[in-house]
């Protein structure tokens, strides 16, 4: 039986690098967690209009929360 050479090891590494879904299936659970931490998706760039919409929604939620708290305090008095 022959020992694998560095060249065959490099070829197998390139083949596995080209198929990340195969690599994920071969990993154990703790290795999979480490793999996912290293390969996170970057934040998506949002358009200006979408950023404004998200800020308006945040402000709306805070205002509604304030109104609900105010009503609860009024009822308890």
Secondary structure tally: strands: 0
Q: Portion of residues in helices?
A: over 70%
Order of helices and strands: HHHH
For the record, the count of structural domains works out to 2
Instruction: Work out the strand percent.
Output: under 5%
Round the Cα radius of gyration to an integer and report it: 26 Å
How far apart the termini lie comes to: 87 Å
Q: Average pLDDT, to the nearest integer?
A: 79
Q: From the structure provided, what is the oligomeric state, counting identical versus distinct chains?
A: single chain
Per the principal axes of the C-alpha atoms, what is the gross shape?
elongated
Structure class: mainly alpha
The largest sheet is: none
Stretches where pLDDT falls below 50 for ≥5 residues?
A: none
Total helical elements: 4
Short description:
The chain is mostly helical and 77 residues long. It has helices at 6-17, 20-26, 29-38, 48-76. It folds into 2 domains: 1-40, no CATH class; 45-77.
Describe this structure in words.
With 77 residues, this protein is mostly helical. The chain folds into 2 domains: 40 residues, no CATH class; 33 residues. The protein is 75% helix and 0% strand. The protein has 4 helices and no strands. It is elongated, with a radius of gyration of 26 Å. The mean pLDDT is 79.
Key attributes of the depicted protein:
single chain; 77 residues; mainly alpha; 4 helices; 0% strand; elongated
Layout of SSEs?
Layout: H1 6-17, H2 20-26, H3 29-38, H4 48-76
């Amino acid at each position: 039986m022959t020992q694998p050479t560095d060249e065959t090891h490099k070829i197998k590494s390139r083949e596995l690098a080209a198929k990340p879904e195969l690599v994920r299936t071969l990993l154990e659970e703790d290795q999979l967690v480490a793999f996912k931490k290293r390969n996170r998706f970057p934040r998506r760039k949002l358009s200006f209009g979408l950023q404004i919409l998200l800020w308006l929604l945040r402000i709306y939620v805070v205002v509604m929360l304030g109104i609900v708290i105010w009503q609860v305090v009024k009822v308890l008095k």
